[in-house]
Write a structure and sequence with these properties.
Strand content: 35-45%
Largest sheet: 22 strands, antiparallel, barrel
Oligomer: single chain
Shape: elongated
């Protein structure tokens, strides 16, 4: 056995080792339950390595190299502080807040901002993953570590640009605590650590066996459910056996939520703004799922341009519209894409430590995560002859040519053209068709995402004299695959409905007169054809990260106040990213899915040094410097300096200044590009022209006019268009200046308060093209004015000519002057800057209640002061200070209290988000303000015209431990059953930090063998 004198070697100068091993960021605001913590490890250091113990008083006190011990009251943090603030969230804290996943923990951190959530990630480019987002600077500004070392990026970048660590891949069952550094750390960790660092730390060792199971159920959604189970086992005692090995397996499952449970539970204002939403589901009037529906025919009057329609023979479900009668079907409600995707995750983690001789330890760990996310697409596809804009998209192998797809017409001799002679006569026998393609089945369409990620690490650490050393090699990677059964395959579609012909006079595409697909029946033969026409295609991505690092640390000089200690290290890494793209998509055969293609690799090298010097017994200087070399730009130097001053025994003053950077990702600067579509493109010309017609139609006394007005209102204000975004090999890294200034005050042994000012100025930002700005668009194309456009103009003209409509129409009538935008092309670039600053406040108290146990109370808050952005390289801040505007509340806060009594623990946790305006910034406020009572140019709830109200939820939990082996817990999340307000800026119709599930009941049981 390694002698205790060697395993717990004492040296003077506590703060030196603390700062070095803690990456200039040792324990900051510590949760009330924390009694023993390890620091955030310096970049090449494993968090499970022997770490120094915090001494009491000055540098003459002994230091335990095993780990930092926060002695006395669990909130006594002065002796563990360094210049940088760190928030520590223990395993017990996580349980008390009711969090079951790492993402839920981040949702309860005031410094974190809402980011992508896997259940809402479909069609984002990084489907199936979740992100961290400190200070609201994006996932690319937050570094996520596991035991002090990097993980590989998620396989598919968000928005095809932002590479990030998927927090869902981190082994939840093995988490001992989380340490959140809310200060810049590029001087220690390199790229990405601009807004801060989230370091997830696992147990150092474990012996025995334990099993835990948790299930969550909603009071409002029967289909909602989150279930977890974990098993952890280990053997070996480091002191007695000289080794310890343990492993854990965590299983997670979230049920999918179909639209049948979701459609009528949106906030009330949503239905005011979308009066046809439920009506268009046709629940009471349309043919039922699985019941044959013959569909409808339509044509356009060559003189008036008006649309005329009629149900196909045999229709049992007819509705009357402005264009005439139509056969309708119910919209199937097993769609899970809008309500919430089903997810299954399995994470395995193994950790081992082995003592070699008297001064050396070998360590290793391995992590593997398998994620499977599924969303049923619900409603079968419908065949609807295209009369408006066709689908348009770019694809890799077709270059800058815009691909287009129309659902064709039926020709006059088509065997399924059973329209009336009067309707056929309008267009020479040619008619359009609306028909429900039910053959493939209600569970065929949808999306699935799988992700396999891993990290394996092995290393050695030891000491020689007063110096310690460590080195490790790690390999990590992810393989992400998106399977979509959504879009048309052009070749398969033609096999089902072709060969096609084109009318030379009108350009209309016409299907075969006797296609292979048989309209009018539901059959397996039809189903086989539809599976070729709408195939499941895959998009695969791989990332890899190999790293070798090493450090040495020890005393270099002795000052009167103590030793100057320094650390020196290196890091070498190999990073690759590869997305070959689907072959059919690359050739333009999959509609609306040109796909992304990336191929990049690079080697990076880094040297770094850190030092801590006790200038006096009360004043300590911390410094760090890192040199990173990337292949495509000059070496980057990132410095950091910090000061810590013990003004009084109860008062600590601290401050830091550093420079941060983010290197361009391989998605932004490598080979390839994004060949796909962009949603929400706003064309002011078409938006204004369409809404001018809609405003007149909505005033009509004729119901058909009003229905059309509701349908076209805002329909051209946010469209999906083809887009191509090109990487830029000439990109430079983003740069940042970061500063903090704060105090830690402990006036009594039961109260501790910290307050820190933080400042981040990021410039030279790497941004995707802003396609609303002409200068960002390399090229753009438009569609011609369509049959549907002309039909809408004809309805307006007929309404205005009819006195019965009661509408006073202008002269001239509104018309279309241009078609919709078809495509845009742009490139990533360095442009713009952001400035954010504010205050973090953390207060913790603990009361000894004698025979009644103990009471812990905590309050944490982030108060934003400024959030300013300039989207170009000009001077000033065009959008002004956006704090208080949408998605930028001034205050985020949490409150917790935990009462421990005998074998019971009762916890109460409150999460608060402050109110904001509906407008995004001062320019947007010209159109969206209390006077207009709008957000995103649509109506908000009348009682909330002045902005989004503050939002809070509370969790109440009780845990009972009847024996040392058994633990039982019950938590009511959102115990007051608060329902979210209507949010016009969010596609879910309520804000991302709120939930629509009402009160959630969580049950947990754990047993140790």
């Amino acid at each position: 056995m390694l002698p205790a004198s060697r395993r717990h070697r004492c040296i003077p100068a506590t703060a030196l080792s603390i700062a070095l091993s803690a990456a200039l960021a040792a324990t900051g605001p510590v949760s009330a339950q924390t009694s023993a913590v390890d620091p955030v490890p310096a970049q090449p250091t494993d968090a499970s390595a022997p770490q120094p113990e915090a001494g009491r008083g000055n540098g003459d006190m002994p230091t335990d190299l095993e780990r930092i011990e926060v002695t006395g009251s669990s909130i006594k943090r002065i002796d563990g502080e360094t210049a940088s603030p760190v928030q520590i969230i223990s395993k017990q804290d996580i349980e008390n807040m009711g969090a079951r996943t790492l993402l839920q923990v981040l949702d309860n951190l005031p410094a974190n901002r809402p980011a992508q959530v896997d259940s809402k990630s479909l069609f984002t480019g990084s489907d199936g993953a979740s992100q961290a987002n400190l200070r609201g600077l994006g996932a690319q500004g937050t570094l996520v570590l596991l035991n002090g070392r990097r993980l590989s990026y998620y396989g598919a970048p968000a928005g095809f640009q932002t590479q990030f660590v998927n927090v869902d891949s981190i082994p939840a069952a093995a988490i001992e605590r989380m340490e959140v550094l809310t200060d810049g750390a590029s001087a220690v960790y390199g790229t990405d650590a601009v807004a801060g660092v989230i370091n997830v730390i696992t147990r150092r060792e474990y012996q025995g066996l334990e099993v835990t199971a948790t299930t969550d159920m909603s009071s409002r959604f029967d289909s909602y459910g989150e279930h977890q189970a974990s098993i952890t086992g280990g053997f070996g005692d480091l002191d007695e056996d000289r080794y310890n090995v343990y492993g854990t397996v965590n299983m997670y499952k979230r049920e999918g939520i179909p639209l049948s449970e979701w459609y009528d539970k949106k906030p009330a204002q949503y239905y005011v703004n979308n009066p046809n939403y439920i009506r268009n589901l046709r629940l009471d009037t349309g043919s039922a799922p699985g019941v044959f529906n013959p569909g409808s025919y339509f044509a356009f009057d060559p003189v008036t341009k008006a649309r005329k329609q009629e149900p196909a023979p045999g229709c049992q479900n007819v509705t009357i519209e402005a264009a005439g009668a139509r056969c309708i079907w119910q919209t199937w409600l097993n769609n899970e894409i809008d309500g919430g995707a089903e997810s299954e995750r399995i994470t395995a983690y193994v950790n081992g430590h082995f003592l070699i001789g008297d001064t050396t330890e070998a360590f290793a760990e391995a992590t593997y995560t398998d994620i499977d996310l599924r969303a049923n697409g619900g409603t079968p596809r419908s065949y609807g002859t295209t009369t408006g804009n066709p689908s348009s998209w770019f694809s890799r192998n077709t270059g800058t040519n815009v691909n287009q797809f129309f659902y064709p017409y039926l020709g006059p001799n088509n065997v399924y053209n059973k329209a009336s002679p009067e309707l056929k006569a309008l267009m020479g026998g040619v008619v359009g068709l609306q028909y429900l393609l039910q053959d493939a089945g209600d569970n065929y369409f949808g999306q699935r995402n799988t992700d396999e990620s891993y990290r394996a690490l092995a290393g050695l650490r030891g000491s020689f004299g007063d110096w310690s050393w460590e080195t490790a090699f790690a390999t990590a990677g992810t393989h992400s695959t998106t399977y979509q059964t959504v879009n048309v395959n052009l070749e398969g579609f033609e096999r089902a409905f072709g060969p096609f012909t084109t009318d030379p006079g009108t350009g209309r595409v016409i299907i075969s007169d006797n296609p292979a697909y048989q309209f009018g029946v539901i059959s397996e033969a039809n189903a086989a054809l539809l599976r070729e026409a709408y195939p499941t295609f895959d998009i695969q991505s791989w990332t890899r990260l190999h790293t070798l690092d090493g450090t040495v640390e020890g005393p270099v000089y002795t000052l009167p106040a103590g030793d100057v200690r320094a650390a020196f290290g290196f890091n070498v890494s190999r990073e690759t990213f590869y997305t070959p793209g689907n072959e059919d998509a690359a050739n333009g055969l999959i509609t609306q899915q040109g796909g992304s293609w990336f191929d990049g690799a690079r080697n990076t090298y880094a040297l770094f040094a850190e030092a801590v010097a006790p200038i006096t017994e009360k004043l300590e200087l911390e410094a760090a410097l890192r040199l990173d070399k990337y292949p495509d730009f000059d070496a980057n130097i990132a410095p950091k300096i910090g000061l810590k001053y013990q003004a009084l025994s109860q008062l600590l003053l601290r401050g830091t200044y550093s420079q941060g950077f983010r290197a361009p990702s391989l998605a932004e600067s490598g080979s390839g590009g994004v060949f796909a579509q962009i949603g929400g493109y706003r064309d002011e010309t078409r938006c204004d022209e369409t809404n001018a017609m809609a405003d007149l139609l909505l005033q009509s006394s004729r119901p058909g006019d009003v229905d059309l007005g509701r349908t076209v209102l805002n329909s051209d204000c946010a469209r999906t268009v083809a887009r191509m975004t090109e990487p830029n090999p000439d990109l430079e890294p983003e740069k940042a200046k970061i500063a903090t200034l704060g105090i830690v005050y402990e006036p009594t042994n039961w109260l501790s308060v910290s307050a820190d000012y933080w400042f981040i100025y990021r410039r030279n930002e790497i941004v995707a093209p802003d396609y609303s700005k002409p200068e960002d668009i390399i090229s753009m194309t438009r569609f011609p004015i369509t049959d549907t456009d002309r039909a809408n103009e004809a309805v307006v003209a007929a309404m205005c000519a009819d006195p019965a409509s009661g509408v006073a129409c202008p002269n001239p009538l509104p018309t279309y002057t241009v078609g919709n935008v078809a495509s845009v092309v742009g490139q990533y670039k360095n442009r713009g800057r952001t400035l954010v600053d504010g205050f973090d406040i953390d207060a913790r108290s603990r009361f000894d209640l004698g025979e009644w146990g103990s009471l812990n109370i905590g309050l944490a808050a982030t108060i934003a002061r400024r959030n300013m952005y300039n989207s170009d390289d000009g001077s000033g801040w065009y959008y002004g200070n956006t704090v208080g505007y949408y998605n930028n509340p001034r205050l985020r806060a949490t409150f917790n209290t935990d009462w421990n009594y005998q074998n019971w623990t009762t916890s109460f946790y409150v999460n608060y988000v402050g109110k904001t305006k509906w407008a995004w910034e001062q320019v947007d406020a010209l159109d969206n303000n209390a006077e207009t009572c709008t957000g995103s140019l649509v109506n908000v709830s009348p009682s909330q015209c002045d902005g989004a109200p503050s939002w809070w939820t509370a969790n109440l939990g009780v845990s009972w431990r009847p024996t040392e082996k058994l633990t039982v817990g019950v938590t009511a999340k959102n115990v007051f059953n608060r329902l979210p307000f209507y949010d016009p800026n969010d596609w879910m119709s309520f804000s991302g930090y709120a939930n629509n599930f009402g009160r959630i009941y969580s049950f947990t049981v754990g047993y140790k063998f």
